[in-house]
Amino acid sequence: MNECSHCLLREAFAREFPLVHGEGAALSIFCKGREIFHAETGEAREGMAWTVDTLVPIFSATKPASAACLLQVLLEKGCGPQTPIGDIWPAFPAPHGTVEQLLSHQLGLASWACDAPVWDLDACRAAIEASTPLWRPPQHGYHPHTLGPIVDVLMQLLTGERICEFWEARVRRPLDLDFFIGAPESVFSRIAELHPPRLRGPMPDTPFYRAYFDPSSPINRAFHCVSGLPSVRSMNEEIGRRCGCPARGGIASARGLAVFYQALLGETKGSPFSPDVCAWMNRTVVSGHDLTLLQPTAFTCGAMSEPRELFGRGGFGHAGAGGCHAFAECESGISFACVMNGMQIGVLPGERILHLLQAAQFV
């Protein structure tokens, strides 16, 4: 990025994240192992400025990190994404489904037959095993919360560890990464306070939101069958910060999230990830109408890849509730991460992220 591009991006960042009391944001962009842009603004909480070291919950932007860990373990055991899940977990309700189909949201387990608390993996496992898939491949529908416990059980069966334990020992600590899946008390003072979305005007009248607020809808079930974190504010409490759920428990700085994608790209010294993992996560395996989000989506083996305007030039990554967003581009060696604590309504990033991508000339 030249000086002019830097100026345009800083102007766009300031415009999209105006100063609001108690709210802030950060943006980090790396290219081939070097940070080429960083900006932060506002407050992490009242009276505390947002800095390069500020951490914030990133919700579903955690999913690619968890998927990368599972894929790396499979590779080390001589397996891969085409491994049938029943080979690892015989009681899984879609035993012939592959790991790739699971990580691309094709196995129809976006909700379970009964509720289970996110803290109790044994209860989640029982709920999974008692469930019947709602659809079969090649149909797909986003699994917002259930994917985490499923991936956690698979990791436990393969290694005896949870995702958060593998992540800490093999990824976060060796790379000194400011990206935690389950944060220790020692970093609590650096975590920004989340502010739930402020609704300005009526709730959007779309098929998705109508289904989301209908308790009888499978879409409502998909967002509520995993209990234990009842609201955004739960992530401001110790129980939320420590949860370590592979689907939504990540807490990271913008730089930490961007460096994770650099590690996937092989641009970080000491990366624990094989190039095969990046290749699997870069290839789109399913696209079309999403049975959960009720709009077109596309997924790789562990990440999102559509709409293209939100994932750069052929990139892969993931959105997080409230608007955070991160992705990598294999060809250019670029990674992008934007995090904030003033949340907006929506499962996918809104216009402010698109405007930043346009200013950075990623679209």
Commentary on this structure:
- With 363 residues, this protein is of the alpha+beta class.
- The protein has a single domain, classed as Beta-lactamase.
- Helices cover 32% and strands 17% of the residues.
- The strands form 4 sheets. It has a 6-stranded antiparallel beta sheet, with helices on both faces. A 3-stranded antiparallel beta sheet has the order 4-8-6. A two-stranded parallel sheet has the order 5-7.
- The model has no long low-confidence stretch (mean pLDDT 94).
- In terms of per-residue confidence, which ranges show pLDDT below 50 for 5 or more consecutive residues? none
Structural class: alpha+beta
Would you tell me which CATH topology applies? Beta-lactamase
What is the residue-averaged pLDDT?
A: 94
Number of strands: 13
CATH homologous superfamily descriptor: DD-peptidase/beta-lactamase superfamily
List SSEs in N-to-C order.
HEEEEHHHEHHHEHHEHEHHEEEEEH
N-to-C terminal Cα separation, in Å? 14 Å
Instruction: Kindly state the percentage of residues in helix.
Output: 25-40%
Strand ordering within the main sheet:
3-2-1-13-12-11
| Count, helices | 13
Quaternary state reads: single chain
CATH architecture tag: 3-Layer(aba) Sandwich
Task: Give short descriptive properties of this protein.
363 residues; alpha+beta; Beta-lactamase; six-stranded antiparallel sheet; three-stranded antiparallel sheet; 13 helices; 32% helix
